[in-house]
Amino acid sequence: MTSKHVDIDTMSRAPLGGESRRSFAALERVAATARWLSISTVAASQAGHVGGPLSAMDLITALYFDQMRIDPAEPDRIERDRFVLSKGHSSIALYSVMALRGYFDVLELATFDKIDSRLQGHPDRTRLPGLDASSGSLGQGLSFGMGLALGARMAGRDSHTWVMLGDGEIQEGMVWEAVHVAARYRLANLTAIVDHNGLQQYGWEPDGNDRGDRGDPWRGIDLGAVFRSFGWRVIEIDGHDFPQILAAYELARGANQTRPTVILASTIKGKGISYAEHQHAWHNGIASQEQLDRARVDLGLDDIGEM
User: Fold this and answer.
1) Which long-range contacts (CB under 8 A, 24 or more apart) does 75-79 make?
2) Which residues neighbour 201 within 8 Å (Cβ) at sequence distance 6 or greater?
3) Quick one: CA torsion of 226, 229, 230, 231, rounded to 10 degrees?
4) Sequence-ordered list of residues with C-beta below 8 angstroms from that of 302, at least 6 positions apart, any chain
5) Pseudo-torsion of CA 188, 146, 271, 214, nearest 10°?
6) CA 306/CA 304 separation, integer angstroms
7) Torsion of CA 68, 70, 76, 80, to 10 degrees
8) pLDDT surpasses 50 at 36
9) Residue 133: partners with Cβ closer than 8 Å, 6 or more residues away
10) What are phi and psi of 174, to 5 degrees?
């Protein structure tokens, strides 16, 4: 990987939050760059996931570059917000954004999923400063995040916990135990973000292939109504529209809240790369050189360096 990438140094933000906000165009540029880093890193390592990271990228970018109270220079500061990537197989999206945000050098992405790398295929908080949770066993992240939020409230800290879940992942029963308990504890400092891209690796009903129907795991179910019935506040948005994303984040952590919030973000698996969008095969696809060249064009990043 070359060190040539988007210049974000001019888009400074005060540590642990401040009045400065980036423009929507700047956020879109960062997200496009992170998408490129993700697909090219996975191609170089010949391992990893692509579709889910691409669908989640705008949501993660908005957290790290606009909303979360964090300081990459002091990743363990107690006052910081916390982020839990429950869908841990999408780790390359988180690593790409963290690298651009300044947690580590972008060049380290070349070690992704290698033996002894800090950037494992699933996040390992014992290896990489700035990670708040190890994840990868699907369904566990919301319970962990609930504990972080409850601990912060008990300690009197004004920090917010954000948990990203996959729409296939929330078929796990443990998720709904956490949904029930978080509402009972009235954890207003907890926000769940559901990356609702409508495609999963394994499906339910046979459709002529060995993995069943990979389509929307919540087809025919009003997911917002389900969360509301548990006592959560529900915000439904386009997960690729930065004005909607940022407005939802501000609402989620707004003052005088008494309930946990879930943001149901409608997204596109493989977003931003033409041949990957809406394609279940790109859940964990490996791009060829020709496809990488096409990805740079699709993302409007012809100036981005090669892996």
Assistant:
1) 75/103, 75/129, 75/130, 76/129, 77/16, 78/157, 79/16, 79/157, 79/158, 79/159
2) 168, 211, 214, 280, 283, 284
3) 120
4) 296
5) -120
6) 7
7) -50
8) yes
9) 82, 84, 85, 123, 125, 141, 144, 145, 148
10) -60, -30
In the block, tokens 């839990």 appear at 84
| Angle, alpha carbons 66-54-203 (nearest 5°) | 130
Question: Which residue intervals of the chain are DSSP H helices?
Answer: 24-45, 51-62, 91-101, 141-155, 173-184, 223-230, 242-252, 289-298
For 59-113, how does the pLDDT look when each residue is reduced to its tens digit (9 = 90+)? 999 999 999 999 999 999 999 999 999 998 889 999 999 999 999 999 999 999 8
Tell whether the model's pLDDT for residue 303 goes beyond 60: yes
Q: How far apart are CA 197 and CA 168, in angstroms?
A: 9
Query: How far is residue 238 from each of residues 32, 113, 243, 254, 276, measured CA to CA in Å?
Result: 17, 31, 9, 20, 19
Residue 249: φ, ψ to 5°: -65, -40
Q: Read off the tokens for 123.
A: 């996040």
**Is a pLDDT exceeding 70 seen at residue 204?**
no
Is-contact 261 236, C-beta < 8 A? no
Whole-angstrom distance, CA of residue 87 vs CA of residue 186: 24
| Separation between Cα atoms, residue 144 and residue 119, nearest integer Å | 21
